[in-house]
Amino acid sequence: MVRKKYIGWLLALLGLLALLVFAVLLALSTGELKLSLGDALQMVVFGGDESSMEYMLISQIRLPRIILGIAVGGALSLAGVILQGIYRNPLVEPFTLGISGGASLGVAATLVFGLHMSLGSFMLPVSGFAGAFLIIFLVYFISARKGNVNINNMLLTGVMVSFVASSAMMFLMAISSSENLHGMVFWIMGSLDEPDNLLIWLTFISSIVVLVVSYLFVQPLNALRLGEEKALHLGINTNVAVKILFVLASLLAGICVAVAGVIGFVGLIIPHLLRLFFGTDYRILLASSFLLGASFLVLSDVVARTIISPNELPIGVITGIIGGIVFIVLMSGQGRKS
Amino acid sequence: MAQDFFNINDFSCGYDKFRLSEIGFSLQKGTFAGIIGPNGSGKTTLFRGITGTLPTLRGSIYLKGKNLKSIPLRSRAQNIAVVNQFVDAGQISVEDYVLMGRLPYHGRFRFFETHEDVSIAQKYMELTDIIQHKDKLMTELSGGEQQRAAIARALTQQPELLLLDEPTSHLDITHQVKILNLLQELNDETGLTVLMVIHDLNLASEYCDQLILFNEGKVFTQGKPEEVLTFDTIEQVYNTPVVTRTNPFSGKPVIFLISKKMMEKDN
Fold it and tell me: Do B76 and A235 touch (CB under 8 A)?
């Protein structure tokens, strides 16, 4: 009986994995230079003529972008689902907590003060991460009292800090030159175009690590669905888990925003969609969110690259539009049901 | 002196503005006990103290001779289960919700439920007559059904002591009686010790063998229903004059309220 449920989960995960493979192959083969899905598969699995144009294009341009897409898409929805679990609120995500606001502020400050000129372009992701970290730190310590973190406090503090960060960001935009302004706006809109392979792998590995660690805390996450007090009645102290998961999810989101800019809605829409199918059990939500988020971002990037080719749309625009519409449809459908 | 099953000794806990003081009572194994008292007299606060949601300020609580503080959380939850006034479980299927009662028996990193877990949950869902709803979401159940599911979840913890916080307060009389009968059966048949906060004095009198009357953060008096539910005591604690009689069927005290108009007429 319960076995059936677990088999269902396994099949769903295999299905999502298949979707991800399909998305990756589609992304490898689509672009100005078109390949068949089969050729792309063959080239990835068996290698190809290393001097050919196709091979260069796939291995050095498309593949890194896809890996970053998997990492960022998976990480943002994972961070979303974790934060939603901690806050017992399906509308929470890295953006509502001010994490992206902080990262944007860091990047904007770097651009305005010209630090990327004097210290090198790696200052952009570093300052983005620093900004995100600062916000996490602020939210965490403002809402923590006597060693206990009050979850509702944390949410309110996050929203407030987020407002302050976006106002500060607007202030920086107002005083910056038009060239910097363009840089800021472009960065805010998000892109998977990241020249530094080290950053790509760093993001990828961080997202996998957080996925694995989150499974160590899946029991408190599940118990937390009843609230902290009732979890305690079941013998589970959620305090430590909440702290660790909050920091991990926020740092992961911070890394993503620092590397790929602001890519909204992934952390909101993917977990929401999966909850419709699986309910609220985090044992399946964590992994499935990661997989579906990864596929969603890789596919969104294909759309962003091809829709007005040879120009490229910012990926944040695509995820925002698709995610927003799907979300509204789902919400209105749910409203009618209840 | 025989060791008490559950003993609270000079206990105090609470908040900045309200705290319990000098709480002391004990329960024998298999007792069906009720905590009664006016609103704000500290009944729910005591529950929070027992479950460890509120830190203990003074005194201690003993379960089978062991200080509750020295019992790890999980084994505590294997011995004491709690049913709260509001279930508020969200979008969880009834079966998954009841299965959460097995969490105290799971290791920290246990991932799957066993067949044993499932059959225990099944058994208590049948006993509480909630089994036909097992695939529904908790939010789709009525108040009484949610309460029954919560009791099934608590029983799935297979506790020796069951704490209930006003389990019948928002139910109609049919469901009130159904739930209390169920608790009575469990108490009779399995020797489950029940400690229940309850507002309705007549229900408290009818079902409980021991009553603990709270007033202003203290135990005002305690004992058998006929010892506690007397005219004088109720007048003092509730500031309400009542008439007490004896239920001809059960021999337990029954309380009648008197309206102001009637009282003026009487005088």
Answer: yes
